[in-house]
Design goal:
By secondary structure, this protein is mainly beta. It has a single domain, classed as 3 Solenoid (Pectate Lyase C-like). It contains three helices and 26 strands. Strand 25 and strand 26 form a beta hairpin. The longest helix has 19 residues. It is globular. The N and C termini lie far apart (60 Å).
C-alpha cells in the first residue's frame, strides 16, 4: 500500500512538473518575449508566430505543433516568421550557444519577410549540444536552413521538407538544407525531401570525426550537389537525386566550377582507409532529358555522379538489377514532377553565357507563405505543387 501511494505521488508530481514545463505561445506577441527559459513551447495549427529578430539559446527548448501527419500534406501548419531589421535586412531565427539545444516538430519556418527579403539562415549552432528537427517544413532561404559550427553534438533531421533554398541571383551556391562546418559526433539525415536548393550537405570540419547516416532522402533540383564528408562512418543509401548538380562543370581548372557532386573529399581518404567505413549504395540518379540535351550541345560538361571520374559503382537502366550498387538514368516516375525544368535550363544557359543574362529566371516553386495588404502572413501555396 505504501508503495502504491508513493508511486501515485511520484506520477502526480511528474504530471505537475510536465504541465509547468509546457507553454502555449501567443500568436499576438513576439516569440522572443515568450521564450525566456527551458521548456516545451506549443504552437497551434493555422496560426502564425512572429520573431523580432534572433533568439540566442543558452538553455534547452522544444517548439511543437500538432501532429497532423506529414507536414507536406498538412494544409494548416503553424508557421514561424521573422521581421526585418530597422535597415530592412532579414534576420536569423535562432543561434544555439553553449548550454543550448533546440527541438522542433510539426510546424513550418518561412524565410519570407514582410518586405520581401529572404532569411539567410534559419538556425545556427555555434556551441550548443544538439538540435533535432522532426516533420518540419523550411521554405525560402538564401544560405543555410541549418548551420553547425559546434563539436561533440548530435544532429537529427527527419521527415522534413525543404523548399526554395535559392539565392535569387546567378549563383550556384547557398541554399543548403544544412551546412556542417563541423559534423558533430552523430548526424542522422533521414526521410527528408528537398525541392530546389543551391547545395546539399557539407562538412568542412575535422577529419573523420563523425558518424553520418544519410538515408531515404529525395533531392529535387540541386544546383551544386556537394557533400564534402569527413565522416569516419558514412552511409549514403536509398536516396533519390533528381536533377542533381545541374549546373555542370567547366573544365577550366577553377575549383568552384569543378565536379562537386554527391560525395567528395578534400582530405586524401586513400591514405586513411583504416580509419573510415564508407557505404554509398542503392541511390538513384536522374537528370531531365532537357538538361542533358543542353550539355550535349555545348562545350560545358554535365556533373559527375561522384567527384572522381574513376569511381564507377553504377548500373544503368539497361543492366540487370544488382544489390548494393547505385542506379543512373532511372526516371523515378514522380506522380507530380518538378515542372520547372525550362526555367532551370534557361538558368544554366545564362549562367555559362553571361552575355545573354537578363532578368534572373526564377526556377523556384511558389512560396508557401505570403504577406497580405495588412502586413500579415498567410499560407497561400501549401501543400506545395510538387
Amino acid at each position: 500500500m505504501k508503495f502504491k501511494t508513493l508511486l501515485l505521488l511520484v506520477l502526480s508530481l511528474g504530471l505537475v512538473a510536465s504541465g509547468f514545463s509546457q507553454t502555449l505561445l501567443d500568436p499576438n506577441q513576439f516569440v522572443n518575449t515568450q521564450i525566456t527559459g527551458p521548456g516545451v513551447y506549443k504552437v497551434e495549427a493555422g496560426k502564425a508566430y512572429a520573431f523580432d529578430g534572433r533568439i540566442d539559446l543558452t538553455f534547452e527548448i522544444a517548439i511543437e505543433g500538432p501532429n497532423n501527419g506529414w507536414i507536406k500534406d498538412d494544409p494548416t501548419p503553424a508557421v514561424l516568421v521573422n521581421t526585418p531589421a530597422e535597415d530592412g535586412t532579414s534576420r536569423q531565427f535562432f543561434e544555439i550557444k553553449e548550454g543550448g539545444s533546440l527541438t522542433i516538430k510539426n510546424l513550418m519556418f518561412s524565410g519570407v519577410h514582410s518586405n520581401g527579403e529572404l532569411v539567410g539562415t534559419f538556425i545556427a549552432n555555434t556551441a550548443g549540444h544538439g538540435y533535432t528537427a522532426e516533420n518540419v517544413a523550411f521554405a525560402d532561404w538564401k544560405d543555410f536552413a541549418f548551420r553547425n559550427q559546434g563539436e561533440g553534438l548530435n544532429i537529427k533531421i527527419t521527415d522534413c521538407v525543404f523548399i526554395n533554398g535559392v539565392r535569387t541571383t546567378y549563383s550556384p551556391w547557398g541554399g543548403f538544407p544544412m551546412r556542417m562546418d563541423v559534423a558533430g559526433e552523430y548526424v542522422l539525415v533521414e526521410n527528408n525531401t528537398v525541392v530546389n536548393s543551391g547545395r546539399l550537405l557539407a562538412n568542412s570540419g575535422p577529419f573523420f570525426n563523425a558518424t553520418v547516416h544519410e538515408i531515404h532522402n529525395t533531392y529535387l533540383n540541386s544546383t551544386k550537389a556537394g557533400h564534402e564528408q569527413r565522416a569516419y562512418q558514412m552511409i549514403q543509401a536509398n536516396n533519390i537525386f533528381y536533377n542533381y548538380d545541374f549546373i555542370g562543370h567547366n573544365p577550366s581548372g577553377n575549383t568552384y566550377d569543378s565536379y562537386f557532386t554527391t560525395w567528395n573529399y578534400f582530405h586524401d581518404a586513400a591514405n586513411d582507409l583504416d580509419k573510415i567505413s564508407l557505404f554509398l549504395g542503392s541511390n538513384l540518379f536522374y537528370r531531365d532529358q532537357a538538361i542533358l540535351d543542353w550539355f550535349a550541345a555545348d562545350t560545358f560538361e554535365a556533373g559527375l555522379l561522384w567527384e572522381h571520374a574513376a569511381v564507377d559503382s553504377f548500373v544503368t537502366i539497361d543492366d540487370n538489377y544488382t544489390i548494393g550498387t547505385n542506379y543512373a538514368d532511372y526516371d523515378p516516375g514522380f506522380t507530380t514532377p518538378p515542372g520547372n525544368t525550362a526555367a532551370i535550363v534557361q538558368f544554366i544557359d545564362e549562367y555559362w553565357h553571361p552575355e545573354t543574362q537578363g532578368e534572373w529566371p526564377d526556377w523556384r516553386i511558389a512560396s508557401p507563405v505570403t504577406w497580405n495588404a495588412d502586413g500579415l502572413p498567410e499560407i497561400t501555396a501549401w501543400p506545395p505543387a510538387v
